Amino acid sequence: MLSFVPNASRRLLAGVLAALLAVGLLAAAPPASAATTLTYNGWTETWADGDLWISFTAAGDEPVGTATATFAGKTVTLERSDDNPNPHQYMGTINGPFPVGTHTVTGKLVTTSGTVTATGSATVLPALRYAAPGSAFSWGVDPLRTKVLAEGGSVALSSGAVKDTTDAAKVSFPMTDYLKGSGRYETGGLARFVSRHRDVTLSDLHWVTAGQGGSLRADATYRHPGQATRSERGVVIATAPVIYGQSGDPMGFRGSVDLAATAAGARILGVSTAASLGTMTWRVALALNPSPASARVIVSPTSTSYGRAARVTASVTRAGTYAAGTVAFRAGSRGLGTVRLSRGAGAMTVPAGIAVGTHAITATYRADYSPTTAVARTSLRITKAGTVTKARLSKKKVTRKQRAKVTATVAGRGTTIRPTGTVKIYDGKKRVGKATLTVGKRGKVTVKLPKLKKRGRHTLRIVYSGSWAFGGSSTRVVLRVR
Fold first, then answer.
1. Residue (of 161, 156, 157, 159) closest to 136 by Cα position
2. Helix or strand holding residue 179 (H, E)
3. C-alpha dist (Å) from residue 65 to 77, 86, 105, 110, 120
């Protein structure tokens, strides 16, 4: 049954209720409760070898509790920030490494009244592990530089070495090879310090970390007053006991060392042993892939005869300068050997005994730290070597009852390798002797001829038939038969 209350009565009832609430005789209904929520607002990207910063915001009636986060199978307890009491912020860091890809970030907040969960996502990018263009060493090479300039000399830079843009007294050497975590850095560029008294060229600077410090190596060509010009490769010219300020992030880092000359460094730079060589700094920008390399190989001469050596030279460039590393040479399937590059070049002698024919010459470059390679090819043609045949009779005159002896000597032109093969002796058109040259006979053989019945002058022709490696040749001797 419905009942209707007049408007005047309603107004009276509302007034009574208000009065009761005012004096506390009637309690007001509680407001509706707000549910606790979590929202992810941490990083959405990181690197495979980096860290991930986690942050969840908690809001609602009960935002205080114990919070944890899980990412890529790793869990961390989050700390509540006192800076933002409402809403509450829970933060923490999960350390890598992580698998590459997009992964879920799961947050959990446990309060007295229950558990609240929320999710977000973050993408793991491949690790940046190699030196990017622009990475470099910066070093003043003092006191050598100051000494040369005081003598009216100059500093010449080439092959990618330039004046440091932040300090004109320093040289910036471009970094060519680096692998994150190796503690080893290679650079290119040449710096030549020359005056009327001295001439020093430094290249291939290479820092090797050891313990808290490390050593600086270089290739050097140098001359000081009263000395002849010398060249040394891979010499430790300076050491440093500690590396300062090496800090950064997954995108790059910086560091510096105070260098002191070793005994070898003192000899090369013209300073005293343990003398201060100033501060060397490095700045490394990291890249996903190593800088590529380009190789070139030449052989000189391009064609030669068997038994003569040829020279094969490879040059490799990288990151706007020459490359450091090694080059392995091959002639066809035959390995010739491996050499270390200096100023981006390496050479090797093709051995004299390589077979006759056209050979593919291959130079394969490998960087020291990054998986960088390059291949260059050319060809070398080997022809048969010429020969000279000489002969000598044991006796120039014999009777019809005697047997003459002929000693034949065959030598290769332009080579010390002794020919092998067959030597034949002819009296006119008739073959009267034959012998085989072996390696052990060293190009010399003696043939005992049959008895010749015809009296008079016999012109004997000694013929070397040649071999796979040597061309043929012949000579003549005259034998008189009485």
1. 161
2. none
3. 11, 13, 19, 5, 20
C-alpha 406/C-alpha 436 separation (Å) is 13
Tell me, yes or no, whether 73 and 178 share the same domain.
Answer: no
Provide the domain limits for residue 344: 293-383
pTM above 0.90, yes or no: no
From the CA atom positions of the chain, what is the Rg in Å? 43
Instruction: Provide the number of structural domains found in the chain.
Output: 4
**Residue for token pair 């800088």:** 291
Say which CATH number the domain at 102 has: 2.60.40.10
Q: Are 411 and 418 in contact, with CB atoms under 8 Å apart?
A: yes
Q: What is the rounded distance in angstroms from the CA atom of residue 192 to the CA atom of residue 113?
A: 75
Distance CA 328, CA 335 (A): 8
pLDDT (average), residues 340-349: 96
327 pLDDT exceeds 50?
Answer: yes
Residue 32 pLDDT? 54
- Point out which residues pair with 221 in neighbouring strands: 201, 231
What is the per-residue pLDDT across 42-62, written as a single tens digit (0 to 9) for each?
999 999 988 999 999 998 888
pLDDT at 139 over 90: yes
Judge if 373 and 426 occupy the same domain.
Answer: no
User: pLDDT (tens digit, 9 = 90+) per residue, 464-475?
Assistant: 999 999 999 999
Q: Are residues 228 and 280 both part of a single domain? A: yes
Question: Which string of DSSP letters, residue by residue, matches 297-312?
Answer: EEEESSEEETT--EEE
Residues 135 and 283 in one domain: yes
Note whether 330 and 375 are same-domain residues. yes
